[in-house]
Write a structure and sequence with these properties.
The longest helix has 18 residues, at 85-102. By secondary structure, the chain is of the alpha/beta class. 25% of the residues lie in helices and 30% in strands.
Amino acid sequence: MKDVLNVTFTDLTHEGKAVAKVDGYPLFVEGALPDETGEIEVTKLNKGYGFAKLIRLNKTVPERQDPPCPVYEECGGCQLQHMTYEGQLKMKYNQVRNVMDRIAKLPDVPVHPVLGMEEPWRYRNKAQVPVGLSGGRIVAGFYKKRSHDIIDMNECLIQHEESDDIIQKVKDICAANGVMPYDEKRHKGVLRHVMARIGWQTGEKMAVLITRTAELPNKEAIIKGIQDAVPGITSIVQNVNPDKTNVIFGNQTRTLWGEDVIYDTIGDVKFAISARSFYQVNPVQTEVMYGKALDYAELSGNETVIDAYCGIGSISLFLAKKAKKVYGVEIVPQAIEDAKKNAELNGITNAHFEAGKAEEVIPAWHKQGIRPDVIVVDPPRKGCDEALLQTILDMKPKKVVYVSCNPGTLARDLRTLEDGGYTTCEVQPVDMFPQTVHVEAVAVLTLTYVTPK
């Protein structure tokens, strides 16, 4: 019989696991919250830490709530539904504050309370779920934790309701028309994933069928079925991914019916969104976050701004409305094409976009005589490339605005910029993904001028 330990949980990891220490040895446990007590069973021991399973809770805290989602315990999509939203915001604030103290070594820099949502449910404008076969019937939903078994679900409480509706109807229509789901073990079958995109402000709807084969059986009947079943559908798209891979999209995309894109707006900027466009999934909080980045940039209309990692031009176009000139760089060529189209769509002529590595393109701009007053970075989770950070230090813009999706790498990069002559003024966390452990943050740094003695 395995040992059962009585413990007090003291903290939460950035993955949402509770921490219990036994003689100083940390054990990570799913489902508990700080200051709760309970019984756990150790499942795995490593050199510096271990994992345990929660057997029962003996004392709970006011931040605990019953998860409203019926498959929350099985599904890995959310990690914090057992915590009140107020508790989630506090946990996310602590996450940012801790890395600012521990990694950035900036205990005196203000970290503001997290900007949360009035309604922290049903906020995602894009849903993409795998399709499979279970018990002889087609199922569609997210994977169970630590497995490739699909949980069949009718709804996801963080997705737009119409996304749920589109996915279920596409799944049923494909099943009725003999389209077999993909079997990843045998690399057989047709339908791999179904994706739905919703224009938050426009109400436009896109359904995307990701298939293993270019041929879609009974294609016309499926198109007609989706048109009839989804009122107001704007676009029906097929993406073909013939490879044996966990990557969702393949290289071939074709519009089966309707428009190639749907449109949406964030603030007063309009965006064209294709099946494969990167577009922020929480448009309500994106406007909050971009607004904060714009506030921190303090543009008067005379500034030159560089937007590194510009994507489809999301932040660039907000900046361009207030700046003299904006230069955007992004490594994905298709994203740059989207950025140019979005600039044209909004009648913005003072934004220049270029495909390439930021750490290569920006120094080339510097050699051409481009002198930015502000550099905005919005890097992937791994943070800024070291060469880009050195480029920023070499170019010495008066201000750096750092938009981050990973507090740990944000703190690391702030330390580098601080050591190179910048001062971090403040950090504003933004909750883009309620019910999950993720938190975004916007930081602003100014160039420190040393007065000669």
